[in-house]
Amino acid sequence: MQPTRGRPRSFDVDAAVERAMNVFWSRGYHATALPDLLRATRLSRGSLYAAFGDKHSLFLLALDRYIADAIARMDVELAPHRDPVEGLRTFLAGYVERTSGTNGRRGCLLVATAMELAGQDAEVGRRVAGFFKAMEARLADALSRAKAAEKLADRVEPASAARILVCFVEGLRVIGKTTPARTSSQASADALLDRFVS
């Protein structure tokens, strides 16, 4: 006798995770209540728990989604076939865009999560640290390619410059909450990169 199977899910899991991600992004982890998630995902309590387990598990899926989107974007911007300096300029311009105006006021789910949870939630801390490490590695690779093409200024070390760029763009995310002028953010990004490239 074959075991009976549960009913197939009648909702789009990816869409539900994305809607939950937007709630966590707007409100933060602790301020997001179960009714907020039920409203956003359009699921019943039973369906939400059956599909995702609990709020924390759903949050980790939402955070993974946010991180995957950010890494995919970086992989396009910093792709090995692109000119490395142009890739770095595109990468920085994207951060300027995401930290300006309404986008900037919304902030960054990753930065907000790092501030709220990374010191007390090991799984979250690993994800945040992993993302920063992945970003740094991609930037170091682009800077190394720029160095090989003799486009890096003398005495600029790719690994150190990559770390500085990570700190810069994540700092832009924080400052973006105060809605700085886009032109000043772009000028800062240009000035920083111009110190690294020849």
Would you give an account of this structure?
This protein has 198 residues and is mainly α. It is built from 10 helices and no strands.
Which helices and strands, and how do they pair?
Elements: H1 13-27, H2 34-41, H3 45-52, H4 55-77, H5 84-98, H6 101-106, H7 109-116, H8 122-148, H9 158-176, H10 182-196
Helix pairs in contact: 1-2, 1-4, 4-8, 5-8, 5-9, 5-10, 8-9, 9-10
In short:
The protein contains ten helices and no strands.
Oligomer: single chain
- The mean pLDDT is 91
Could you give a short account of the major beta sheet?
none
- How far do the termini sit from each other? 72 Å
What is the structural class?
mainly alpha
Percent strand: under 5%
Q: How would the global form be characterised?
A: elongated
Total beta strands: 0
Helix content: over 70%
SSE run: HHHHHHHHHH
**Rg on CA atoms, Å:** 20 Å
Report the uncertain regions: none
Q: Treating each run of at least 4 consecutive H or I residues as one helix, how many helices?
A: 10
Characteristic terms for this protein:
198 residues, mainly alpha, 10 helices, 73% helix, elongated
